[in-house]
Batch of 2 targets.
Target 1
Amino acid sequence: MAVQEARQGASPGPGAGVHDGGCACGDCPHGAREGHRRAVAAFLLKRDGFAAGQGLPAAVAHSVSASRQWVSEELTQSAEFVAERGRAEGEAWLGRLWLRTAVTVWAAVVALLLVQSLTAVGAGWTGARTAGLLAALVVAGALTAASWFHRARGGALAPVIGEDNRLSTSRAVAAAWVLLVAYAVLVLAGRLAAASSPAERDALIAGLDLARGAGTVTVLAVVCGIAVLVRRVVGLRVLAQRLQKVRAHRPRAADLLTDDFGRGAFADIQYAVIGGVALVFAGVRLARRPDQLPDLPWGLAVVVLISAATYLAGKYAEGGRPVILSVVRSREAGDLDAPIRTGDDIEIRGAGFVPPGAHTADRLSRMVVRIGPVHVHVPLVPVTGGFSNPTDAILTVPVPADVEPGRAEVQVVTAAGVETNRYTIDVTE
């Protein structure tokens, strides 16, 4: 009752404004980006104020449990508003990304033209240079058209954005190799169309023989297979509750080298670096020998295969199901030792309670603890710069009065919807 009375007397929330960042124009001060920035600033100010003991209504200040509940619900509502503004900002950012990808693609074509023009000084312009430029125009046109048709999903980057709205390392590496091989085939096709003598045409067709491009073809097959297999592996592990996945607000370039926590991931870094180095080598070989597929040496091809195997093993090894290790009665300083009773706080100790990427307040507020038949939402306890509850290893929740005395099972449901094991406790009267 105290919490409800305090809420009725509280000021309107951040969403009460007439034009508080809801539009997606992106340029005006009230655009999606500005609205998200203001919502984040307001939330941080409110969280740090509550952490310092400021802003509590008099109706709940006398009760620790009531004040904690009121603070948690206020922060939850504010966090939901931040999440809403973040989703709007992410959608607006994706809508603008297609133009940026198109500009980047055509900038690469211009750079290729400049490089060819500079290297042609003294050596002269050749048919291979013309075929390379025409192939680049065809690829750029196809990517621009794909960007337009997928402009709401990131343009040309749409195929490499995963189901969790993050850039996929495996898809990005596979897409880069597909583009290189497609460009090489188009170069050969252009030269074949301009060839006048039968001997030259036969030589160009022989350039597509498997013996000359076996390394490149093998790497292409492996990286494409890895992209498909990783998607399948991640999907099955999520359905089996062995991997926790939460959706990101928008993709970032750092996703290619980091895990869902945002920390550098060795498996992703080595796969992207080695794949990129091999791709550059293959591009140089194509520039030097434009009459055949890039002949990737088997030594380098094996290095790429080992890197791909390491990346796949890392995907199998990551994650894990959250687990409850123990449940104890939470004890404040000066309290007497006692069994767990209704109304007491219990401390749930374990691992994996906070999924990767779910450290924001709107995700933390979705955590639920089942105590017998009762669902208890985990309260948000703010401290300066973050939250002391919940954490990845410890949760503190009250035992509600609706829990009957006797043996009760405790189970945590994370923000990703994954359930922990059941842990039995004894609740006394």
Target 2
Amino acid sequence: MNDLNGVTLEAIVTRLQAHYGWEQLGQRIDINCFISEPSVKSSLKFLRKTPWARARVEELYQGTKFTD
């Protein structure tokens, strides 16, 4: 089930970054945009053109138990 309806990729990346931080995000999903000079803007650019990476980010978002 995809419960991301209405949630933007930017909102997903921003929330994951706030929850995990760049270092832990890079450990959980080994992609360069989370490891080398990470930013929301560079991550969005990469994820929008890389479907497999975007899918991994969306899976992590759906599987994360946010406390806020």
